[in-house]
Each structure stands twice: as C-alpha cells, then as structure tokens.
Amino acid sequence: MDYKASATREDLEFILLNEDAEPKPLPLSLLVDITSDFSDKNIIGRGGFAIVYKGSIGNRTVAVKRLLHFDENGFQREIKCLMKVKHQNVVRFLGYCKETRGKMAGFKGTLVMAQEEERLLCFQYLSKGGLNNYINADASSALEWEQRYRIINGVCQGLHQLHQHNILHMDLKPENILLGNDMVPKIADFGLSRRLHEDQSYIITKNLCGTRGYMAPEFIDSNPENRAITKKCDLYSLGVIIMELLTGTRKQCAVNDLDQPVGRIKD
User: Fold this and answer.
1) Predicted model pTM
2) Sign of CA dihedral 47, 49, 26, 35
3) What distance in Å separates the CA atoms of residue 262 and residue 211, rounded to the nearest whole number?
4) Which domain holds residue 106?
5) DSSP 90
6) What residues are paired with 50 via a beta bridge?
7) 150 and 114, same structural domain?
8) Which end of the chain has the least Cβ crowding within 10 Å, N or C?
9) Catalytic: 171?
10) Which helix (H) or strand (E) holds 155?
11) 102: CATH
12) Quick check: is 262 in a domain?
C-alpha cells in the first residue's frame, strides 16, 4: 500500500467537498496542523484503541482518528475496508497516514531522540455524535418515532451495503453509529472489521472480538478453536440496537462495557 503523501489543505478540502473524490495518503504534518498538534481540547472521542480529534479545514471540520495500538496488517485491513464502500449510511473516509517522526524522550537520565510511529485515519465529521447519546435520553433529546424508523432503516441499508462487499463489521453498537445535522445514521469504526473472500462465508478465529452486550451468545460461547465470524454476528448486533432504539433503554451488560471492545482480530 502506497503511503507517500503530498496532499495539502486544499487537497483535503477538495476531497471533503466532492463525494466522488478518492481517499488519499495524507502527510502527518497536515494532520498535526489541523488538530493543533493533537491538542486535548480537540478530543471528541476516546476508546481502547484510538483517540479521535476534531480537525479544522477552513470553515469546515473533519475527524482524525489516531490509533494507539495497531499492527501493520490490521491497519491495512481497516483502510481496505473503508476504501471499498461508499454509501450514504457509511461514514466517508477521506484519507490515511503512516509516518514516523522523531521525538525527544528521557532514557537513563538523559534525553534521546526516539522514533514515534503514527497511524491515522481521516473522516467526515458528524456533529451529532454517536447514537448512544439518544438512547436513555431525557425528553429534550429523545427521538421521535419517525426519526427512530429512519435511523433503523439507514443502519440496515448501511450494513447491507457492507455485507454486499463481504465486509463484516464486528463491532456494531450505538457508539459506532454517528449522526450528522440531518440525523442520517452512518456506520463508523472499522477497527475490528474483516473482509471475506468471494468464496468464503465465515472466518475462524481464536479471539473474541466486539463489545459485550452486542456480541452473539453463540459466538462468545463457541469453542475457541472453532469460533466462526459470519454475517450473523453483525445481524445479532443490529437486533440489539433496534431493540434499544424501540425501547429507549440500553442493555445493562452493554452499558457496563461501554466503549470497551473485547479485542482486535489478530489471525
């Protein structure tokens, strides 16, 4: 995968404004600039594997996901999944960055120049945040029934599009369904996703992956030596989300494990 980046602010703004534009490799210097060097004041989300920052491009905003724990295969897998799908109910992917920069650090009582690897992904910014903010909400921010229907329909359409491309999300939950000003839902966070080959219907893994409360019981309880990842895993998660939207109540096990995915797929 080509990581050579020469994109400018103008290039990123062009990609943001033109939905037919392809994601590009972005220089670290650009992402540092638009996030004010990953300032804490620009943090808009934090999880077990990444921190998400707000970035400013002129009078527009993007989201920059800075990976904390990663492996090269997983990083490339996430990019490939993101670049494969363009759909109104899947978050728009704008670009990616893989660079190493020098950073002074203490070592045995002295300062040395350490090499700090950075892996970043850039997305459209969705101002209303995660769907989780609208479940168990008070009356002032509760969703109307028509809105709930449109959100359910949109998530179904987005997931169907992923499955049409043989992409298994594997961490579908309200926190990973983002909403813009128009309240159109967009599926996000493909850090645990896998793509099946054309002749595959499942992948065998020894690792649990996903968030408890949204993981299918048969997946959790299956033999670790023969644990199958299938489209049914996503459909179970979708069913939980639909029930939560209809009842306005989070499952207790899901609330307790909020934003704590069990693990990443390594095999």
Assistant:
1) 0.85
2) positive
3) 6
4) 9-124
5) B
6) 67
7) no
8) C
9) yes
10) helix 145-164
11) 3.30.200.20
12) no
